[in-house]
Automatic annotation (TrEMBL):
It comes from Actinophytocola algeriensis. It comes from the Bacteria. Keywords: Glycosyltransferase, Membrane, Transferase, Transmembrane, Transmembrane helix. Residues 15-28 have a biased composition (Low complexity). This is Alpha-1,6-mannosyltransferase. GO terms for molecular function: glycosyltransferase activity. The keyword Transmembrane applies. The lineage of its organism: Bacteria, Bacillati, Actinomycetota, Actinomycetes, Pseudonocardiales. InterPro entries: MptA/B-like. Its main location: membrane. Residues 1-29 are annotated as: Disordered. Its EC number is 2.4.1.-. It is found in: Membrane.
Amino acid sequence: MAVGDVTQADVDGQPSTSVVSSASSTAPLDSRERRQLDVIRRFGTVGALLLAVGSLGAGAAPVNNPVWGLPVFGLFSRMTTVSLAIAFAGVFMIVLAWLGLGRLALPGRARMVSLPQMARTLVMWTAPLVLTVPMFSKDVYSYLAQSEIAARGEDPYTVGPADALGYDDILTKNVPTMWRETPSPYGPLFLVIGRGITWLTGDHVVMGVAFHRLLALFGFAMIVWALPRLARRFGINPVSALWLGAANPLVLFHLVVGVHNEALAIGLMLVGIELGLRRMPRCGPGGPYPPWQPGELLWYGIGAVVITLGAVVKIPAALALGFLGVMIARRWGGRWKHLFITAGALLVIFLAVVALTSIGSGLGFGWATTLNTANTIKSWMAPMTALGFGAGGLGIILGLGNHIDAAITVSRMVGTLLGPLLAAKLLLDSFRWRLRPMIGLGAAMGAVLVLGATVQPWYLLWAAIPLASAAGNTRFRTAATAISAAFAVALPPTGNTFDGRTYQLPYAYLAAAIVVAVALFVVRKHIPTRPRRKAPAPVETPAGRTQ
């Protein structure tokens, strides 16, 4: 059995013996491949350094940019196009290095990158990114302002930064205009942590960003810790899972550089699933179901609590409780009554943790009314919103009038209904063992978020990271690789629109492409090639001939 070819006879949460043996039978890289790995590491590290340098002028810098008055460093903030070209060159080099690394971490290879080698590569690529100015988004400045509102004793779920802090406050000035009057959409756990960061840093924007980045790195570390462990449970090579789920450019750009709180929420979700499955014994689709082991129920509860903590950072993590419940119900006996009892127990845990965090934080349950705050954005990346734009535009062409807003509202309503219905179908298929529960979780996350009103590149990580731990087929990896690479290079790193200065983008892209082409020419002899598949052995026919 090839690495990652998980069968329906595998364990709920545990791989079959054949999968484990095949996943652990890969040999270390030979000397030529180690040289290729070394070049790939350095290529990606140079890209990370370029991205860090480019961020000085092309990043989402604060209003009172402390770099402006510094010798040499201040030059980048006055050369926006040059800085943008440097940043794009870094983006391209990281993406290309990741693709090259993927060829050395491809499932089914006779020789693969080891876990320590992958870990060192991650450290080399991540270290320069820790020092960058925030890029690709300005959400971290909203985190600072909303945390300050909570620290002042006001309700961040009823007032926005402009009303609570004033337009002249330095934290408000750094929040994008569209969000200055918008209440917080984030859970109470995140704002409690943010309130602590505010207590430490006050209104010092740079220090506040640094502490939020530490929080994002903690979430990233949880992802790195959980992914290989979950991969082993589901019969996937842990190196391949880390490559797709942790070294992914979308993770590096939006969780590490962009400082998004998805890092903490996804990290808690994955750790919760891993802890919940820690004592789960082997049982196939039809049984037998062994007796309960000591402490097994305790670990299920701990896992559910940790997942719920992820949900009170960002609510999509709550969906993981359903698929954890499916695995518990199947381990219990796989009947409908087991599913309903498990669902009831997990619901009690979820409500208890939500109540404790909401009341204990002093913020209450107002966050439940602001979860759709992001829907005010009409993003072309959201398929249902794009469908509304298309339908409304067609109506204008046909002379029916401008009904774009109405078309977007209708298409979003369809997506809001269709996403949860697909998630419910995937949950049912997972319970019936037509689908691996972890694969079901990733697909359900993708259905709910992609069919939602707003889609951002980092939303894709909710689906990609769980799928990386359980889906080993090459078609999935090819699709996920292509989508990740495309979205990684499509979004400008500034976190701003280019209204009135779109001319900068083609110049920056062209200059970056030239630099990267030269770099590729220099390392062309060390680019790993895709391994050839072995030809099938000849089959002897009864007549003694071979086919």
